[in-house]
Amino acid sequence: MSISRRAFVFGVPAAATVGTAIPAAAQAGSAPQPPFQSPIAIRSRDAVPAPGLPALRIGYPHSADLTLRYVSRDGVCTERGEEEVVQADVPAGVAHVRLGTTRYELLQYHFHTPSEHTLDGRHYSVEQHFVHRGPAGETLVLGLFLVPGGHREQVPRHLPEECGEVRPVTVDLAASLPRNLSTFRYQGSLTTAPYSEPVSWLVLQHAQAVAAAGTVAYRRLFPHGNSREVQPLKGRRVSYRRQ
In this protein, which residues make up the domain named Alpha-carbonic anhydrase (predicted)? Predict the structure, then answer.
């Protein structure tokens, strides 16, 4: 995605975009740019209103056959850490989102406990990340805070164990997101190794209430959590698109 297009879609200042899009080693004669990592602490009062940014359009189906698996990072079946997640893999072409005329295909989603991003100083029980790929290979992640108190079994109560079997699941993806699609948008990175940049983040303002059994099961699976700590903002602007 070009600098001008990224600035248009995500409200990123040109200087910050250059820092994330161009490796420091390739900038001959310039000082190394600071890494722009994720997650971050989002403060709603500091977010810049950006009503001109394109709306988020969801193309998720009501029924999708996915594959649920435990992603191990260390090859050890008895140790769990922040690098490991339970992940649902999405077949190609099943689901997508749009920003303006650009379509981003949903590759997978996974969970972190507690939430990796914070909103106004609050950590949520679980954060769900919907990972998408754009037409030029760019990465877009939609972040959703989950709280117990609803009826949807969004976090499966029967979770795959590390080194366990892969499980087929049928999921209502269309009901996964809240009706209010207001988002905080910023440029960052993956939150697991290799922490690649740039990643375009859209973090939904409104949390989704889900069945408590799933969040409890996930926290039992990762009793010490599987979240990366918040990273310095380093001058980045967080935009807010009400929707």
Answer: 8-242
Pairwise CA distance, residues 207 & 209, whole Å: 7
The low-confidence residues of the chain, meaning pLDDT below 50, are 1-5, 8, 12-30
Decide if 85 is inside a domain. Answer: yes
Report the predicted TM-score, pTM, of the whole model to 2 decimal places: 0.88
Q: Is residue 41 in some structural domain?
A: yes
How does pLDDT run across 159-183, given as a tens digit for each residue? 998 888 899 999 999 999 999 999 9
d(CA 143, CA 230): 14
Q: How many domains does the chain have?
A: 1
Say whether the peptide bond before residue 35 is cis (omega within 30 degrees of 0). no
In a domain, 29, yes or no: no
Spatial separation of the C-alpha atoms in residues 43 and 202, rounded to whole Å: 14
